[in-house]
Amino acid sequence: MTIDTAKMPAAGRMGYRFNLVGMLALAVILLWGFVAVFAHLLIPYPVGEIVDVDYFGPMSTQFWLGSDYLGRDMFSRIVMGARYTVGISVAAVAIACTTGVVLGMIAAVSGGWTDTLLSRFLDAMSSIPSKLFGLVVVAAVGSSIPVLIFTLSVIYIPGAYRFARALAVNINAMDFITVARTRGENVFYIIRSEILPNILGPVLADLGLRFVFIVLLLSGLSFLGLGVQPPYADWGALVRENIGGLPFGAPAVMFPSIAIASLTISVNLLIDNLPYKIRDRSVQ
Question: Is 142 domain-assigned?
Fold first, then answer.
């Protein structure tokens, strides 16, 4: 038996299709990532300091995005809020997708009782409504950044598991997996070198979608008062704090909403316009 290496997709042999919409979306995502990392250097005023004599102040040269319901600078609060919204969401989606994908590949390759027990347990977890689970956990334990990250990651582990398992089951049935088993390769090698490279593209796309879901769920919890607690605030908490300015069209309530929309829409556009292409592996 000979293996035609020209027809085998080596790990990392993936194609990318760039277009203008995808590049613009990527630019917005990188911008918010930069803001989240260097927020403490970008804010002109301390986030908790009252700097405006007026509340719900308009945009001006002194206060670029106006002031909030207490007279605090909204630009500073939105920039610092990016650190919490982006940081918590990235940590939660990394834990959720890493755990779910690893468990999904193990279940697909091992089969038998391992697959059955993992699938039934995670199916039971996924039957619990995500927002209800988040509300119960945060209300019972208390809201803190570690609790938020843990809660959000647990909510989305079952979905990442089901997605990765479905992909891995299809790959596990292919001939080159049989060849690897015949060579005597262990489960760890098959998962790392055979399964993962062939499902990486769809998994990364799924990661982006789950990041959007986590941002929206985190913002929803914060809007209900169960997210990041004062004096700090993420974007959802900023909307809740300044909801009283909605009848006045205050910038303090509009710009946090625009920030949430710009991040989530950009991630969706990036996924739609930068698809990963993984060629089929064939063995001759």
Answer: yes
Instruction: Give dist(CA 124, CA 66) in Å, integer.
Output: 47
Are residues 92 and 152 in contact, defined by beta-carbon separation less than 8 angstroms?
A: yes
Other CB atoms within 10 Å distance of the CB of residue 252: 30
Query: pLDDT digits over 196-234, tens only?
Result: 888 888 898 899 999 999 999 999 888 888 888 887 889
Residue 3 domain-assigned (yes or no)? no
Question: How many Å is the Cα radius of gyration of the chain?
Answer: 23
pLDDT digits (tens, 9 = 90+) for 129-160: 888 888 888 878 888 889 999 999 999 999 99
Owning domain of residue 156: 8-277
Of 211, 212, 255, the residue nearest 233 (C-alpha):
255
pTM: 0.84
Adjacent-strand bridge partners of 15: 277
Domain count of the chain? 1
